Structure formats: C-alpha cells, structure tokens
Amino acid sequence: MDMTVRRTEPGDYEAMQRIFGGSPAVAGTMQMPLPSAERWRRRLAEPQEGLFSLVVCVVGEVVGSLGLEASTRYSMARVVNR
C-alpha cells in the first residue's frame, strides 16, 4: 500500500468532515460530534497559530489525519518540577 503524508490543504475539508464524523473519531476526541463541511472548510482555510495539521493519503484519497499543536503554556522546567 502506497501512503503519502502531507500538510492538510483547504480543499481537504470534505474528507476531514467524513473522517471526524465517523464513530471512532466522535468517541475518541473532545470535539463536538458531526461538524459541518462548512465548519471544516473555515477551519482549514484559517488555521490556528501553532497548529500543524497533516493528512494520510492512499492512492490520492485522504484516509486519516494527524494534528500537532505547539504550546507555550508550560515550560519543561515547570512540568518537571511539579
């Protein structure tokens, strides 16, 4: 199976709606269930600062996603000393 990982693009909004509308994603995230395609379109067109969104494609079709968020809320010193 030939998989490609790439940065999410605004045109991926329908695939993201499909992925996050599935029951495993609804049960495993802290997001509102069944987000609309329009909400995904806006989210991908205007990404939050520090949020890095990737998708996994198989034969050109988006089949999974991964989000990474850079946070400056906690420094390692604070986490280690708690």
Task: Looking at this protein, list some descriptive labels.
alpha+beta, Aminopeptidase, three-stranded antiparallel sheet, 4 helices, 82 residues
Strands side by side in the biggest sheet: 1-2-3
- Residue-averaged pLDDT: 82
- Class inferred from helices and paired strands: alpha+beta
Q: What name is given to the CATH topology? A: Aminopeptidase
Spatial extent as radius of gyration: 15 Å
Assembly type of the chains comes to single chain
CATH architecture: 3-Layer(aba) Sandwich
Q: What is the number of domains? A: 1
Report the top-level CATH class: Alpha Beta
Based on DSSP secondary structure assignment, what is the total number of beta strands?
A: 3
The low-confidence parts are: none
- How are helices and strands ordered from N to C? EHHHEEH
Please explain how this structure is put together.
This protein has one domain (3-80): Gcn5-related N-acetyltransferase (GNAT) (Aminopeptidase). Helix content is 34%, strand content 27%. It has a three-stranded antiparallel sheet. The chain is globular and about 40 Å long. The chain is an alpha+beta fold and 82 residues long.
Short description:
With about 80 residues, this protein is α+β, with helices and mostly antiparallel strands. Helices cover about 35% and strands about 25% of the residues.
